[in-house]
Amino acid sequence: MKEKIRIGFVGCGQFCRGFVPIFKAHPAVEYIAVCDKFPERAKDYFDRFGCDRIFDTYEEMLASDEINCIAIFSQRNQHGEMAIAALKAGKNVYSAVPMATSVEEIREIVRLVSETGLTYSMGETGIYRPAAIFCRQKYASGEIGDLVYAESQYNHDMSRLYHTFQYTEGDAWRKMAGLPPLYYPTHSTSMLLSATKAHAVRVSAFGYEERKDTDIFGEGKNYWDNPFSNTSMLLKMSDGSVLRVSENRRIAWHFPETYITCFNGTAASYECSLVQHSFVRAKDKTVEYENVSDLLNPIELTAHKNDSDFLERAAEGAWSSAEAPIQRVDRLPIELAEVGTGHAGTHKFMVDDFCQAYVTGKLSPTNAWQAARYNIPGLIAHESAMQNGKTMDVPDLGDPPQGIEVLSEDREVNPNTYDEYRKENRK
Ligand SMILES: NC(=O)c1ccc[n+]([C@@H]2O[C@H](COP(=O)([O-])OP(=O)(O)OC[C@H]3O[C@@H](n4cnc5c(N)ncnc54)[C@H](O)[C@@H]3O)[C@@H](O)[C@H]2O)c1
Fold first, then answer.
1. How far is the CA of 60 from the centre of ligand 1 (A)?
2. Considering just the CA atoms, what is the radius of gyration of the chain in Å?
3. Any domain includes 421
4. How far is the CA of 165 from the centre of ligand 1 (A)?
5. pLDDT digit string (tens) for 73-87?
6. Which residue segment(s) compose the domain that 179 sits in?
7. DSSP assignment of 318-387, as one string?
8. What is the number of domains present in the chain?
């Protein structure tokens, strides 16, 4: 039998906090180690989560026989390099998004995974967002028909969140905060591509040159000389559809932040506005309308839908982090029932994907090939935006090797369902 997961976390920062408890509770995991370049952060995690060991450096962790898997939670521009080093050291990899910030690094990750057969899974919240699940299921059932046009975006106004960069970067935080928005495209792209499994062929993009926070965005202001705080790309896809994807970092919008605005097919369409989710099927000369809001909105949010200030509170993001009925929490091991989730109920699904892929030898839904298709379009699109929208080819690294099953995002229910638990707790 395959040995259990013995995982080392690199990056004991703000995001990783939500994940150590989930991994620790997962029945496939038996050992947790931590490492951070700020030793006090690793010590805090060690004490708080009851970890097995602290490593002083990432290199020591990679060299250790105690570890068979690495979870990467360092800053955005470090994931590619760290994943490559981990794969070269023979470790399986769970990586926070993005996969990497260069096409070369992504190629290398795909090459190493292909060569070694190690598990690679990118922890992409987008594919378990309720709207992504809905569009994927409707597309798979044939109800959508052919996809014609779709729009998604990640509206993440950083002005409220600059302190999150200061936490690790100190005085140099602006250099990191100026990351080109399209270097972090996977939340938006994955929501659409996980339904169709098509890949981008051509791209053209335009950016909004930041006018206010010019100490963050502009030549010499960040590691990438990036002038854009908001960027949108138009993608021509391999299935003939056209997608508009926007990555906005300075925008007066709060919730929903990662969402599909429309998913328009030849037979039916999904559309969303704030908390109103609509599904419309073509019927002869008219249409059939279905309000699917209660299926897609978090259960807590729906419980408040008759409040007088419901829309105002919803626009602020109230009740938005919990699970929605469309999310198959009964797919997850019962051991995860007591652990907290985050990002619209997506965290446990991502952890379970990695663990199930490792245990079964199948590929995670966000395997290296699929993650590449989510990530590369944005990297090319930023180049396009820097050249005033020049249309460019998008390289495709192909499908996973034939003969290795890819776990479905919407796979069968785990026999140890925790539905009963949830019902009990909602009485
Ligand atoms: N929805 C999502 O999927 C989502 C949300 C938030 C963050 N993230 C991703 O998670 C990652 C972490 O974000 P965060 O907000 O926790 O950042 P953070 O700055 O709080 O944490 C990063 C940690 O990595 C540590 N680190 C960096 N280099 C290291 C090294 N060589 N060795 C050991 N430790 C090292 C830093 O000291 C820091 O503690 C980011 O890359 C971000 O893209 C994803």
1. 19
2. 21
3. no
4. 10
5. 999 999 999 999 999
6. 127-324+368-386
7. TT-SS--TTS-GGGS-GGGTTS---TTTTHHHHHHHHHHHHHHS-B-TT-HHHHHHHHHHHHHHHHHHHT
8. 1
Ligand 1 midpoint to CA 10 (Å): 8
73 lines ligand 1 (CB under 6 A): yes
Q: Tell me, in angstroms, the distance from the centre of ligand 1 to residue 12's CA.
A: 7
Buried b (16+ CB within 10 A) or exposed e, 350-361: bbbbbbbbbbee
Q: Report yes or no on 359 lying in a domain.
A: no
Contact 333, 414 (CB under 8 A): yes
Instruction: Give CA–CA dist 126/61, Å, rounded.
Output: 29
Residue of 36, 129, 257 to test ligand 1 pocket, by largest number of atoms within 8 Å of CB: 36
Yes or no: say if 179 and 232 are a contact pair by the CB < 8 Å rule: no
* Rounded (10°) angle between helices 368-386 and 186-196: 130
Q: What is the pLDDT of residue 330?
A: 87
Q: Could you tell me if residue 117 is inside a domain? A: no
Rounded CA gap, 115 and 61, in Å? 22
Is 122 inside any structural domain?
Answer: no
Q: How many A from CA of 16 to the centre of ligand 1?
A: 7
Placement of tokens 């990036």 in the chain: 226
Task: Tell me which residues of the chain have a pLDDT lower than 70.
Answer: 414-427
Structure tokens at 236: 């021509």
Reduced to 3 states (helix: H, G, I; strand: E, B; else coil), residue 148 is strand
pLDDT by residue (tens digit) across 373-395? 999 999 999 999 999 999 999 99
Task: Check residue 427 and give its pLDDT.
Answer: 38
* Atom 34 (ligand 1) nearest CA: 36
Question: Ligand 1: does its nearest atom lie under 6 Å from the Cβ of 97?
Answer: yes
Domain harbouring 205, CATH code: 3.30.360.10
Q: d(Cα 179, Cα 207) in Å, to the nearest integer?
A: 13
Helix (H, G, I), strand (E, B) or coil at 213: coil
Q: How far apart are CA 256 and CA 317, in angstroms?
A: 7
Give the C-alpha separation, 182 to 188, whole Å. 10
For residue 321, the CA-to-ligand 1 centroid distance in Å is 20
Q: Residue 261 and residue 105: Cα distance in Å, rounded?
A: 31
The residue contributing the CA closest to ligand 1 atom 33 is 36
Helix (H, G, I), strand (E, B) or coil at 250: coil
- Closest C-alpha residue for ligand 1 atom 30: 37
User: What are residue 125's phi and psi, to 5 degrees?
Assistant: -65, -30
125 lines ligand 1 (CB under 6 A): yes
